[in-house]
């Protein structure tokens, strides 16, 4: 494709002084790289875990609430799935409970998988679930594969991920 002469890089570069051209180049590179910042998820215990550390495995981001009976039904299945070497389960409390209250509630409900301190949906551009339980299935490459509603079983999840 041929660009008009007024848009050519050599023409723009020659119209700028050397320091201005270099500053523009550095600024452009900085803006391009700013979108590549690493996502860190805060776990219920306050520690941080890099989202990139989950690459290569399936991740189930499960939204739950204490008042949700189907959520209670699926906890044993999710605990079992989380023990598999190729799957990680991350729990998100729908009601926004945090800190020690969240850890206590998770223990009372029998949750053994990692609980997140905050909802990661805004960081990833996901919509807040409209029903509970909701499970976002993320592939080994970090892409959202499917969102499922209702209690999941190990067989349900294994069917989706193909093993």
TrEMBL record:
Task: Please list the residue ranges annotated as the Thioredoxin domain.
Answer: 30-163
One Pfam match, given by its short name, reads: AhpC-TSA
Entry coiled-coil feature ranges: none
Query: From the UniProt record, which GO molecular function terms apply?
Result: antioxidant activity; oxidoreductase activity
InterPro entries named in the record: AhpC/TSA, Thioredoxin-like_sf, Thioredoxin_domain, Thioredoxin_ResA/DsbE_sf
Q: Looking at the record's lineage, which domain of life comes first?
A: Bacteria
Which CDD domains does this UniProt record tie to the protein?
TlpA_like_family
What PANTHER family does the record tag this protein with?
Answer: PROTEIN DIPZ (PTHR42852:SF13), THIOL:DISULFIDE INTERCHANGE PROTEIN DSBE (PTHR42852)
> Mind telling me what this protein is named?
Thiol:disulfide interchange protein CycY
């Amino acid at each position: 494709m041929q660009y008009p002469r007024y848009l050519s890089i050599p023409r723009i570069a020659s119209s700028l002084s050397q320091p201005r051209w270099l500053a523009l180049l550095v600024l452009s590179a900085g803006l391009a790289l700013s979108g590549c910042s690493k996502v860190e998820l805060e776990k219920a215990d306050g520690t941080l875990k890099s989202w990139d550390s989950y690459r290569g495995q399936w991740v189930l981001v499960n939204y739950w609430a204490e008042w949700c009976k189907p959520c209670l039904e699926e906890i044993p299945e999710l605990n079992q799935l989380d023990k598999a070497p190729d799957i990680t389960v991350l729990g998100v409390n729908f009601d926004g409970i945090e800190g020690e209250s969240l850890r206590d509630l998770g223990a009372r409900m029998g949750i053994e998988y990692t609980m997140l301190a905050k909802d990661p949906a805004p960081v990833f551009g996901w919509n807040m679930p409209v029903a509970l339980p909701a499970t976002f299935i993320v592939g080994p490459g970090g892409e959202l594969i499917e969102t499922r509603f209702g209690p999941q079983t190990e067989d349900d999840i294994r069917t989706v991920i193909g093993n």
